[in-house]
Amino acid sequence: MKMTDEELLAALADPGEDAARMQRIATEIGSGFRLLSGRLGKAVAVFGSARPGLEDPRYAAARMLGSRLADAGFAVITGGGPGLMEAANRGAVEAGGTTVGLGIELPHEQALNPYLDVSMSFRYFFARKLMFIRYASAFIVLPGGFGTLDELFEALTLVQTGKIHEFPVVLIGTEHWSGLMAWIRDRLQDQGFIESDDIQLLRVTDDIDEAIELIQQCHLRQLAL
């Protein structure tokens, strides 16, 4: 059975279905807006792999991150899955914060984690991405795979092109992200594909408190726009 995104991308096979698809997309986006509008206050989206388990030190770090974000007054939005997403939500719940999980329907279904105050599962990736950008003040990116990188570069593109402003993107884990940062400098900047200032759109740190301070400062500037 095809997933909804797959059906959309195969629209040429049945172009008469486009109007119905448009209605389903509009309904999903509207449901997301109604669910989240006015409920969160300031919020940060945390991305990371679903694979690390409870004994992984990265799980503990993500849990601490969620707790510190909640202490700073931020709701924590994740993809709602297990692993580092669960850890960030769990830390926020334990600190008395608000947690959100925005799941996605996949062929190998991942259940939403149990540390969520607000949750929704999406059929369409792009509708889900819209909710992350619309309701978060910043992205914090933990180690992860293709999905994590997809969210990272989506945000960077929107900031670089001026679609969103004062929106920090913070990578946690200098050792993990060092190869990517070197590639960006050596292949993208040095060959003229990006400007030197574009690298400054990314902050890399191991210090959770430093990341939160940066996000707090940017949030205040967002309010002043």
From TrEMBL:
Keywords: Cytokinin biosynthesis, Hydrolase
Gene Ontology biological process terms in this record: cytokinin biosynthetic process
Entry annotated with the keyword Secreted: no
EC number(s) given by UniProt: 3.2.2.n1
InterPro entries named among the record's database cross-references: LOG, LOG_fam, LOG_family_nucleotidases
Catalysed reactions, as listed in the record: 9-ribosyl-trans-zeatin 5'-phosphate + H2O = trans-zeatin + D-ribose 5-phosphate; N(6)-(dimethylallyl)adenosine 5'-phosphate + H2O = N(6)-dimethylallyladenine + D-ribose 5-phosphate
GO molecular function, one term: hydrolase activity
GO CC term, one of those recorded: cytosol
Superkingdom: Bacteria
Similarity-based family: Belongs to the LOG family.
Protein name in the entry: Cytokinin riboside 5'-monophosphate phosphoribohydrolase
Organism: Paenarthrobacter ureafaciens
